[in-house]
User: Fold Sigma-54-dependent Fis family transcriptional regulator from Oceanospirillum linum.
Amino acid sequence: SLQIHIQSEQENINRLTCAHNATLECMDDGLLAWDEESRITMVNHQSERLLNIEASQVLDKEVFSVLRFPPNVLNSIESGASINRKLTTVEVRGEFVEAIITLRPLNDGTHLLFLHPIDKIRELAQQQIGGSARYT
Assistant:
């Protein structure tokens, strides 16, 4: 019946939502998203940690009132261009935060800003250097 089908679909949606949320919270990257009106719609725990912000304080705020981007990043945001793993500095409440960022504009006007933790990347690079040094 239709009722059973609706219930099954609801269970699938709940499963997918749980998996989606778990993925966002388990990844090393910070993720901050904003909509076509530049309102922050999502902040994961890593973004809170890397940017020293609280999701509850910045959700639904205008992204440019929370983060100050350098001109080259601002130009990419305004022109709808992507950025792939670029080392940059953003200003958050008067503090400068160095980050490697990836920016993805989506078709609906949403932007996804991934913050790749520099310490983790340096750690991986060090492991690679150490690993290759052992074999030479």
Remarks:
- The chain has one domain: 28-134.
